[in-house]
Write a structure and sequence with these properties.
six-stranded mixed β-sheet
Length: 632
């Protein structure tokens, strides 16, 4: 990237490194001259545009994701060459990247608002934050460009920002902030500061992590989020600065006493800036050190006034309010083709699933299933490798150091190789699984305030989420699997209507968000009767010969799980269909919901169980899935 800019400089620069221009819109001309470089640097993460007429600083537009560049802020205001100006522009782009990313974090808007409030209240905090942030921004610019820009940065700090390394004339807390920045970017030159300041700088350098990385180096890493850096700043660095500022204020009070009895007059009777008024006893550091802050701020590359940043943030907040969570959810639901209520209901149910605990493992059933899925995938990722003794030739170099030593001795056939023999350990691992869920839509599911209906919804959400996770995990590892695994699902609901033979979700591998929300929504209504035989007969009739062959050959495991809270309207038809399915190798399980569903113990025998408490239904369905999938 640095070559792009170097070429532009060679083509456009005069001897002093400044591109000569005339006319009104010289800022636009500068930007257009180096547009390719800035756009390449931004890499599409942010739009970079020339500042509009009338804007004499840089500016951010969070809504349009745009930074407006006014090079004259640096060229005329600081006397920078074009190379230094380009570095400063990239520096501002980095500031924008950081702030934009923080606003995308959860609670980012609130945190950013508090951050702006701190800067508005305390110029000391603003200066310290800017000095520490500048370290990070400059590191990022150099990483993305190269050595030439690092040289440009060093010249800029030595010639323009900090031509002197002696900060002893400044208040202690300002010395502290300035020395942090200069010593990090010009590490071969130690700043001259007061002893108290040096003690704080040494203490700060003494804070290291377990890898012996200094706090300042860690918190200004280019991959560290701004939100984390600010937390570390507040926890470790700000207290040091506040101690020094307190001492500065005490020194000012002493000076005030020396100037007169009241301590609020300068020579000629003029009131001292920041002096306490009647009834007040504290100095205002923003006023007392106003001139010192103004001098110190010239050592940073800050170009966006605090007031402008606040205004930009308010515009962003306004846009966020207009595009609120409710608005986004409504639009998202429409894009899925479901109602906003169905989306909200599904999310609410899904949030409760981590509370479904397996008492045997003392962790959530969801986590149990994920662990099982990881084990299933792990068994299919590799075959066992059995090494033999070192040989003169082989598949892999077992001892590279030995090979080097033997070669130096003139032995070019050392026994440093090993051959690998593949031994396959086979288990009962079907490549395909089909699971048919048959859910109860009978009116009795509404008894007791609809608890059984609600728990059936939760159970199915748990099952669908778990099986979706499994297929996602398989997709991630697909390239390393020696034996594929595929789980397909379908969902039926019986309620004594013609639709009983039509699945709510067709048999297939995909469990899209729309599928899951639709199934959950359909199970919120249970107005019918117990016609469980209809979906069972449909599954039996539609079982193709190809699937039957795979079941016989052990390539396909087919499972039917029926959830019901009462006796079937035609138990004989159910038993006949179950017998037919089991004869074909299909696993059929009946899950009775509360004691009212006790009939399953006879109708679905021997693969049947009753969940006495409806609240245990999600856990039992999860454990049932685990039992039937653990041998894969």
């Amino acid at each position: 990237m640095e070559n792009i800019f170097k070429q532009e400089m060679a083509q456009n620069s005069s001897k002093d490194g400044v591109v000569p221009r005339e006319g009104k819109d010289i800022s636009t001309e500068y930007f257009n001259t180096h547009r390719d470089f800035f756009e390449t640097y931004a890499r599409g993460g942010v739009k970079v545009e020339p500042a509009p007429v009338g804007l004499d600083t840089f500016a951010f537009n969070l809504e349009k994701n745009t930074i407006y560049v006014n090079d004259m802020f640096y060229r005329e205001g600081r006397g920078f060459s074009d190379e230094k100006t380009a570095f400063a522009v990239c520096h501002e782009v980095e500031h924008f990247f950081e702030k934009k990313m923080m606003l995308t974090e959860k609670g980012g808007g609130e945190y950013f608002s508090k951050y702006l409030e701190k800067i508005g209240k305390s110029r000391a905090y603003g200066l310290l934050d800017n000095c520490v942030a500048d370290i990070r921004e400059n590191r990022s610019v150099v990483e993305k460009t190269g050595k030439e820009f690092r040289n440009t940065e060093e010249k800029m700090y030595r010639e323009d920002l900090f031509p002197s390394a002696d900060f002893r004339d400044a208040p202690l807390h300002i010395q502290f902030a300035q020395a942090i920045l200069r010593e990090r970017r010009l590490p071969d030159e130690q700043c001259l500061v007061a002893d108290e300041v040096r003690a704080k700088l040494d203490a700060l350098d003494g804070i290291v992590n377990k890898n012996k990385v200094k706090l300042l180096d860690a918190m200004t890493g280019t991959n560290v989020p701004m939100s984390l850096r600010l937390k570390l700043l507040d926890q470790y660095v700000v207290p040091m600065m506040e101690e020094l500022k307190k001492k500065d204020l005490e020194n000012e009070k002493e000076k005030s006493k020396e100037r007169g009895e009241s301590g609020d007059k300068k020579e000629g009777g003029e009131e001292q800036a920041g002096a306490p008024k009647d009834g007040e006893g504290e100095l205002d550091p923003n006023e007392v050190f106003k001139e010192a802050y103004e001098r110190a701020e010239k050592g940073t590359l800050g170009s966006v006034p605090h007031e402008a940043e606040e205004a930009t943030f308010k515009e962003w907040q306004k846009g966020e309010k207009e595009n609120s969570v409710e608005t986004r959810d409504k639009e998202y639901a429409e894009s899925l083709g479901v109602s906003e209520k169905a989306l909200d209901d599904y999310r609410a149910i899904n949030k409760t699933l981590q509370n479904v605990i397996n008492p045997e493992t003392n962790q959530s059933v969801v986590d149990d299933l994920r662990e099982l899925f990881r084990r299933i995938i792990a068994k299919r990722k590799k075959k066992w490798i059995v090494p033999k003794y070192p040989l003169e030739e082989g598949d892999t170099l077992d001892d590279p150091v030995g090979a080097y030593v033997e070669g130096m001795r003139g032995n070019f056939k050392p026994k440093v190789w090993e051959e690998q023999e593949i031994k396959e350990i086979r288990g009962n691992k079907c490549g395909e699984v089909e699971i048919s869920f048959v859910c109860d839509g009978s009116g009795s599911m509404n008894d007791g305030g609809g608890l059984k209906r609600k728990e059936q919804q939760r159970a199915m959400v748990l099952a669908m989420e778990a099986l979706k996770d499994f297929n996602d995990m398989v997709d991630e590892e697909s390239g390393s699997l020696t034996e594929p695994i595929d789980i397909k699902t379908e969902v039926y609901k019986f309620q004594g209507e013609q639709s009983d033979s039509e699945p709510l979700k067709q048999m297939g591998r995909e469990l899209s968000e729309k599928d899951r929300i639709t199934v959950c929504g359909e199970l919120s209504s249970t107005p019918g009767s117990t016609t469980d035989f209809v979906p069972l007969e449909t599954i039996n009739i539609q079982l193709p010969d190809e699937s039957l062959g795979k079941i016989r050959d052990g390539e396909l495991k087919k499972i039917v799980i029926v959830l019901t809270d009462g006796e079937s309207d035609d138990s004989r038809r159910v038993k006949d269909t179950i017998a037919s399915l089991r004869e074909k190798g299909v696993v059929v399980v009946g899950l009775g919901i509360t004691s009212a569903g006790g009939a399953v113990l006879e109708t679905y025998a021997p693969n049947a169980l009753v969940v006495e408490d409806a609240k245990d239904l999600p856990r039992m369905l999860g454990e049932l899935l685990e039992d039937h999938l653990k041998e894969l």
